[in-house]
Amino acid sequence: MDNQTRIELEAAAFRGLMQHLQNRTDVQNIDLMNLSGFCRNCLSKWYRAAARDRGVEMTYDDARKVVYGMPYDDWRGKYQLEASDDQKRAFEETKPLHAKISGHN
């Protein structure tokens, strides 16, 4: 496979993942973090870092709008639920497994 085809396939897969996550508003970020070690915010940070690496100016809010399909505050107001004590506990327990992302605390 040539490099351009690989890049196009990877981009298509990423767009599919973003569309799936935009459709699955019932899936909370904390659950994604606890199960997989990354969430929509992580994808946003990777997206912004890729833009920065290519000399494209992009704010974190701009990157989140791409990933969430709407401004983050709108998504949060419509779909984000308060995390339960069990979810918060699992988040702390799985922190060593969370994605290593530039700018991620």
List the helices and strands and how they pair.
Layout: H1 3-23, H2 29-36, H3 40-53, H4 60-68, H5 72-79, H6 85-94
Helix pairs in contact: 2-6, 3-4
Task: Describe the protein's architecture and organization.
- The chain has 105 residues and is an all-alpha fold.
- The protein has a single domain, classed as SMc04008-like fold (Orthogonal Bundle), CATH 1.10.3340.10.
- It is 67% helix and 0% strand.
- The protein is built from six helices and no strands.
- Helix 2 runs parallel beside helix 6 and helix 3 crosses helix 4.
- The mean pLDDT is 94.
Q: In one word, what is the shape?
A: globular
CATH class: Mainly Alpha
Biggest pleated-sheet summary: none
- Total discrete domains: 1
Total DSSP helices: 6
**Order of H and E elements:** HHHHHH
- Write down the overall mean pLDDT: 94
Strand content: under 5%
CATH homologous superfamily descriptor: SMc04008-like
Structure characteristics:
SMc04008-like fold, mainly alpha, 6 helices, 105 residues
Summarize the entry for a quick read.
This protein is mainly α and 105 residues long. It has one domain (3-97): SMc04008-like fold (Orthogonal Bundle).
